[in-house]
Amino acid sequence: ITTKHMMDFRQKIEKAAVIKRMEDSLKRLQTDYVDVAMVHSIEDLTPLLQSEEVLGAYDELKKAGKVRFTGFSTHNAKVTLKQALETDFPQVVLVIYNHMEGQEIEPLVKAVRAKGIGTVAMKIFAGNQQGNLKSMVGPKMSYPQAAIRWVLANSDFDTCIPTMSSYSHVE
Questions:
Q1: Run of H or E residues at 102
Q2: Does 19 score more than 80 pLDDT?
Q3: Regarding predicted confidence, which is higher, 29 or 167?
């Protein structure tokens, strides 16, 4: 189970507020802990790494058994993955990677994976642009199956999260 929280580092963030937000998430999720707690949509890790309040809150949540691993999601992997190599904060990263975009970050993904940081690909359906997967799509394999297969063929990714915006997608 993963939960993500936006943080506005332009404003003062208090440790108690971060903890309350996590506890509220736990209630909504009807669980005592989450496997991963992420700072959502961060473009630069510097403000996060300079926030003793946020880092202290996550440390406290880990010690209390409410969070197993911490990390971040980003649309700026070229910057944040480099920064992830210099800190112990993230144990998991969530980045854009699909058959149409993201290949330029493969060396960084390899490096963070080698450091022991879990890697998750998002936006794997490339806006439904079949691109170079057209040859894989047919009666035996749907486009979503081909897109998932393409991402998971890269052993530097641990998993991927396919977008599901309707019940038919889940089915």
A1: none
A2: yes
A3: 29
Query: CA dist 52 to 14, 70, 137, 141, Å?
Result: 9, 15, 49, 48
Q: Residue 143 to residues 100, 111, 158, 163: CA-CA distances in angstroms? A: 13, 29, 21, 13
d(CA 127, CA 23): 34
Own/partner pairs for 83-91, CB < 8 Å, 24+ apart?
Answer: 83/44, 83/45, 83/46, 83/49, 84/45, 84/112, 84/115, 84/117, 85/111, 85/112, 85/115, 87/45, 87/49, 89/45, 89/48, 89/49, 89/55, 89/58, 90/117, 91/36, 91/116, 91/117, 91/118
- DSSP-derived letter for residue 138 is B
pLDDT at 169 over 80: no
pLDDT tens, residue by residue, 81-134: 999 999 999 999 999 999 999 999 999 999 999 999 999 999 999 888 888 898
